[in-house]
Amino acid sequence: MTLTLYQIEAQLRDALARPLPGPIAHRAVAPRPRRGWQPGEIPDGSRAAAGLLLIYPVDERPHVVLTVRAGGLLKHAGQVSLPGGAVDPDERIEDAALREGSEEIGLASSGVRVLGTLSALHIPVSSFVLHPVVAVRHTRPALRAAAGEVARILEVPFEALQDASRLRRGRRYHDDAWDVLVPYFELGGERVWGATAMVLAELLAVLGVPPRDPWEDGENRL
Predict the structure, then answer these.
(1) Which of 36, 189, 193, 195 is disulfide-compatible with 184, CB 3.0–4.6 A?
(2) Angle (CA) 205 120 5, round 5°
(3) Over the stretch 150-175, which tens digit does the pLDDT of each residue have?
(4) Radius of gyration over alpha carbons of the chain, in Å?
């Protein structure tokens, strides 16, 4: 099903006012085995972070913007993420998401309409709880990658998110011993996994086009 930006905006406005499928959508694309993370649980003492999930047109086709994090960062280096970061004291989550969009990808806030937030998601490795802020813009913004923070900006067509062949599964290793099966979206030549994949899975679910089950075909997509 091909959705226009106006259809996406209308559906999101309605869906974000209702109970969200966060833990179910997150669990479907979570690594196995999961260590230090349980769907829907937010440990005490977690620090709030905001991520901007911005949808806008490129050649009249809805896109979402993601970033490839710079290789020199201390945490999540080289990974694909939403533009985002820690929420400052006394700062609203929505304002933090827009600020991070400005700092990381040069996004001007004019014309950006915030629709709401998806489910909060705990990230054990950094002890942050990510709040994905959903927004739309009806014209393509001028973007630039922040030196030292963003290696590359990805503008991902929405139909690529819906393409079942883009959701695959691979392996990751921790300390040369922990073998983890990881579902990921193949987008723009990058593997999008972990928290970012979970956010995208929930976005698709609330729009009524959830991704297929990445575990349905055994070991065939490694």
Answers:
(1) 193
(2) 40
(3) 999 999 999 999 999 999 988 765 55
(4) 16
